[in-house]
Task: inverse folding
C-alpha cells in the first residue's frame, strides 16, 4: 500500500474573519480624544514625579547644609589623624 500525501494548505484568515476590536467599533474622533487624554495623564504623572524628586533633592540639600554647621556632626565625621596635618 502506498502512503497518501497530505497537502498542508492553510487558509489565511482574511481581514473580515478577525473579531472586531474596540478600536474598530469606536469612531476615530473618540479614539483620538482618548489617546490625547492618556497622553495628558502621562504628562501629569511625569510632572508629579519630577516635583517629588525635586522636593526630595531640596530636602537633602537643606539637611546637608544644616549638618555642615553642626559641630558635633563635623567632629564625628572628621578623621582624628593629626599626623596628616602636621
Result:
Amino acid at each position: 500500500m502506498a502512503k497518501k500525501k497530505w497537502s498542508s494548505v492553510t487558509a489565511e484568515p482574511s481581514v473580515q474573519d478577525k473579531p472586531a476590536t474596540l478600536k474598530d467599533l469606536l469612531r476615530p474622533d473618540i479614539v483620538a480624544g482618548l489617546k490625547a487624554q492618556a497622553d495628558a495623564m502621562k504628562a501629569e504623572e511625569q510632572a508629579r514625579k519630577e516635583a517629588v524628586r525635586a522636593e526630595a533633592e531640596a530636602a537633602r540639600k537643606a539637611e546637608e547644609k544644616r549638618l555642615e554647621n553642626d559641630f558635633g556632626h563635623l567632629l564625628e565625621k572628621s578623621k582624628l589623624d593629626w599626623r596628616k596635618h602636621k
